Known about the structure:
The protein has 188 residues and is mainly α. It has a domain at 1-84: Herpes Virus-1 (2-Layer Sandwich), CATH 3.30.40.10. The protein has 5 helices and 7 strands; from the N terminus they run E-E-H-E-E-H-H-E-E-H-E-H. The strands form 3 sheets. A 3-stranded antiparallel beta sheet has the order 6-5-7. Strands 1-2 form a two-stranded antiparallel sheet.
Amino acid sequence: xxxxxxxxxxxxxxxxxxxxxxxxxxxxxxxxxxxxxxxxxxxxxxxxxxxxxxxxxxxxxxxxxxxxxxxxxxxxxxxxxxxxxxxxxxxxxxxxxxxxxxxxxxxxxxxxxxxxxxxxxxxxxxxxxxxxxxxxxxxxxxxxxxxxxxxxxxxxxxxxxxxxxxxxxxxxxxxxxxxxxxxxxxxx
Length: 188
């Protein structure tokens, strides 16, 4: 099995089950969820497959509904659980650092002597932990918003029922008065 099959061909990061989930574009190509998110938020109303240049309507923020997870790739990931080491193409060293300015993995030489010298650099593991914490915070916020939305919907339904009841009472009162007027006229 070629390791490129388990790597996003846009960012060259390996697919995983948390941050780089393999997503299938409607044309059949697969890229990681991070790159999909960047594509969608770059163009807003549409996005273009980076491989065959086909254009698709943007699925707003819920790309998981339109762009399903590539479970075949996830299955391959499960079978190949060893940790892949990415080496710098220039220095052939492990890329264990992350350049915050360029949003890219770098080796120690690139970070302190090469093209990323002077940039904001952090340990890749720290960045991943930070991203995971932010994802957890976002999930909590989403859950809170969903609960609030549900409460609002319930209150809206209750208010509609109350308004419907008030309207029926008002109709009954008006109908009663109208009936009295008609009965009064028929007696005269």
